[in-house]
Every structure is written in structure tokens, then in C-alpha cells.
Amino acid sequence: MNFDKKKAIRIIKEFDEITKEMNVEYFLAFGTCLELKRDNGFIHTSKDIDIGVIFNKQLPIRKLVRKLIERGYVLDRQQNLRLNMRNGVKYSNIPSFYSFTKDDIPLDIYLFFVDKKNSRYVGGRKYTIPIKLLDEFEVIERFGIKFNVPSPVDEYLTYRYGDWRDREWYIKDPNKSPVNT
């Protein structure tokens, strides 16, 4: 499957509109955050759109999923996570990851749960992000949209990818995994 950048921009704009209508705050995560920060857009190695959402009990995640399906997104996969946080909070069988496709563009949504004792967020497929990087968001503007990103975004990208400013890191070794998964 070839990643069509024009379609991806249309998809991310539509997703932004839907989340604004529903008052759902999200942030760009993982490779999408990297590409839009470093390269000002999607690059030739793009495979999907990565979105992060901080879980709270008021989050209308099921409504968001229904709305995306109504708008033509196909739910390819849902992953539930069972977490026993060290602060005593237990999450059992809670959706933590959704993978959608629309017009051959994958859109992955990772839900992050707070683990205050360890000063981190745990989400998706048990990815962790230090809590200080998601306490507040920075905003970057791309494609005429203001996107939330972890703050400070440079620190987040260094935590996640190491030397993220090196545009050749993926090309040099496509099997290289991010520093912190």
C-alpha cells in the first residue's frame, strides 16, 4: 500500500474537525509528531497517522469511534489493555488502541492512562511517556491546522527517537526501533 500524502492531509483535517465538534483533545504522537515537527509534513516513509488521547472518565471515546465509523472510517483493530498501576488504580479491559483506515490511510489512536507514582503515561501497546511531557501541550501549525504536541516537543522526540533531527536515521537502518517503546 502506498501512503498518499494528499489523502493523509485530508484525513487528518477531517479527524481534527470531528474531534473539535466532540470537544475531544488529542495530540500528535510518534512518527506523525516527528514528521510534522521536523519535516513540516508527511515524508516518503510515512505509513500511518498516529494520534494520542489522554484517557479520563469523561472522554467520549465510544462516541468518537461511532462518529468515525459513520464518517467512513473502517475499524480494523481494537486492543484492550489491562493495567494495574502502582498507584493502585486498575484499568481492566479498557480499549487502549484503535486502528482505523479510510481511503487506504491508516489512522491509529492511542489512549494514554496516567501512572502518577511512576511519573509517566502508559498507553496503546504499553508505550510510556514521562508525565511532564504531557502535562501541557505545545502547538505546531501545519496544513492550516493547529496541532497539540507533547511539550517540550524537542524533549519528547529525543526521548522517543534519540537523534531525531537526523533525517537519515530511518534510511540508514529501516529496522532500527525507537529508543523508548
Secondary structure layout:
Layout: H1 5-22, E1 27-28, H2 30-38, E2 49-54, H3 61-70, E3 74-84, E4 90-102, E5 105-115, E6 120-123, E7 127-130, E8 137-142, E9 145-150, H4 153-161, H5 169-172
Parallel strand pairs: 2-5
Antiparallel strand pairs: 1-2, 3-4, 4-5, 5-6, 6-7, 8-9
CATH class: Alpha Beta
The major beta sheet can be summarized as:
7 strands, mixed
Rg from C-alpha positions? 16 Å
CATH architecture: 2-Layer Sandwich
Q: Kindly report the average pLDDT value.
A: 84
Pick out the low-confidence regions: none
Strand percentage, roughly?
Answer: 25-35%
Gross morphology is globular
Predict the CATH topology.
Answer: Beta Polymerase, domain 2
Count, helices: 5
Roughly how much helix do the residues carry, as a percent range?
25-40%
Element pattern in H and E: HEHEHEEEEEEEHH
Query: Would you tell me the structural class of the helices and strands?
Result: alpha+beta
Q: Can you tell me the number of structural domains?
A: 1
Could you give the count of β-strands?
Answer: 9
Distance N to C terminus: 25 Å
Structural commentary:
- Strand 4 and strand 5 form a beta hairpin.
- With 181 residues, this protein is α+β, with helices and mostly antiparallel strands.
- The strands form 2 sheets. Strands 1, 2, 3, 4, 5, 6 and 7 form a 7-stranded mixed sheet that branches.
- The chain has 5 helices and 9 strands; from the N terminus they run αβαβαβββββββαα.
- The radius of gyration is 16 Å and the shape is globular.
- The chain is 28% helix and 35% strand.
- It starts with a helix and ends in a 9-residue tail after the last helix.
- It has one domain: Beta Polymerase, domain 2.
